[in-house]
Amino acid sequence: MHIGILSQPSNFHCQKWAKALKKVGNQVTIFSLENHQVEYIQCVNLNKNKESWSYLDFYFTKNRLKQALKSEKIEVLHPLHLTPYGVWGLWSEFQPLIPAAMGADVFEYLPYHVIPELNYRQWKNLTQNHHFFYQIKNFLLKMYHKKMVQKVLDKANFITADNQTLIQALIKYFNVPIQKLLLQRWGLEEEIFDAIPENEFPNIFKKLGIQTDYPIILSPRGLMPIYQADIILNSFQKLASQFDNFQFIMLSAGYPLPPNLQLQIDTLESKFTNFKCIKSQISREEMAVLWKKTKIFISAPIYDGYSAAVAEGRYVGAIPIVNHIPGNLEVIENEVNGIIVNPFNSENLTKAITHVIHNLDKYYEKFKLINQNWILQNGLLKNDALNFTQFLKSHF
After folding, report:
1. DSSP characters for 115-158?
2. Which of 99, 117, 281, 366 has its CA at 20 to 30 Å from residue 29's CA atom?
């Protein structure tokens, strides 16, 4: 089956899913407005004369997309994200249309009483801006994008969602019939954890500016406001001096660095040799090496789908410390296979990390076995790709 993916080919979610679908026998072509190639996957760039793009660019390239889908003989159109790629697919008028819903696609448009932190921790609000005119502009854009998301959901033949929390939100707040919804986690690729031989690990750590002598306490999700990086950073600031036999590492995950965190990060890096913020996006293979040295990781977004970072951390046996949100509660049970911090604030997080450090061996051995077994049974990408392929063959 020839699957057309609409996405940003430099995005690691796109790369790993496209490759997984191809490995199980599909022909896969990625259509985008980005000049980026993915090894072994055909990529069609419909924006060749521009290095960047806006929402309007998707609208003005809809006819080009329509012709390209016909020319490449696409059988199923599979946008990754409801917006902008689901909207782009909608504008192309192609059928069958099966978009993949991810966290921000849905949770950003829920009422504020459902996720109160959306008032000041929305995805694009780097400065947590409370200015009146910003709020008005944001409200109008939110209403427009929500309307377009609804149109995509209404037109789609099926919608995949990567956790039950997302499915329930689609049913309750977007009136999507349950029969149109397919639980489709994007699991992990076991092979990336063996891609780099162990004798190369010192070179990777040197490249990333990480010491090789001490285990890592990792914040892997990024520095955008929705990830509550400011709370994690304040906790790391308190802990770095107390536990100089650990390394405290924060990743930007390739996202922009909020201005209010820049100075604090620079100050901590100059003050503590065991604190490091990796501001560039690192490769999947290098990330696997980093995971292998991680003993504890923190994941605390204000909302979440099925998190690749949480899955990878669990796979290597690192101890999860998470906040109390539905997405985390689907996969983490407090004191059974992870630690849940509630309410999630700097003081409580600091106490939790300190407690885990003092009981590291006990938690590590207990949680590792449970988490690894769960991932092997429920969270492998190759099984997800095979199940999705079988679903397509049985319906189209």
Report:
1. SGGGGT--TT-TT----HHHHHHHHHHHHHHHHHHHHHHHH-S-
2. 281
Distance of alpha carbon 306 from alpha carbon 315, whole angstroms: 14
Q: Which of 231, 233, 230, 282 is nearest to 254 (CA)?
A: 282
Q: Are 351 and 340 in contact (CB under 8 A)?
A: no
Q: Are 79 and 5 in contact (CB under 8 A)?
A: yes
pLDDT value for 231:
96
Nearest CA-CA partner of 82 in 110, 54, 59, 103: 103
- Cβ-proximal residues to 294 (8 Å cutoff; 6+ apart), any chain: 215, 216, 217, 218, 313, 316, 318
Give strand pairing partners of 76. Answer: 3
pLDDT band at 132 (very low <50, low <70, confident <90, very high): low
Under the banding of pLDDT at 50, 70 and 90, the label for residue 72 is very high
Neighbours of 231 (CB within 10 A): 21
Burial class of residue 394, CB neighbours in 10 A (0-12, 13-18, 19+): exposed
Please spell the DSSP secondary structure of 241-272, one letter per residue: TT-TTSEEEEE-TTS---HHHHHHHHHHHHH-
Q: How far apart are CA 362 and CA 212, in angstroms?
A: 23
Rounded CA-CA distance 222/117 in Å is 17
State CA 7 to chain mean position distance: 14
Q: By the 8 A CB rule, do 216 and 247 touch?
A: yes
Selected residue with higher pLDDT from 132 and 67: 67
Cα 47 to Cα 42, 62, 206, 256, 301, distances in angstroms? 16, 11, 37, 23, 33
What's the rounded Cα separation, in Å, for the pair 225 and 59? Answer: 29
What's the pLDDT tens digit per position in 169-197? 999 999 999 999 999 998 999 999 999 99
Q: Nearest CA to 24 among 1, 7, 45?
A: 1
Does the pLDDT of residue 126 top 60, yes or no?
no
Q: Which residues of 195-229 are buried (b: 16+ CB within 10 A; e: fewer)?
A: ebeeeebeebbeebebeeebbbbbbbbbbbbbbbb
Q: CA 132 to CA 50: how far, in whole Å? A: 33
What does the alpha-carbon distance between residue 55 and residue 124 come to, in Å, rounded to a whole number?
14
**Tokens 């259509």 map to which residue?**
31
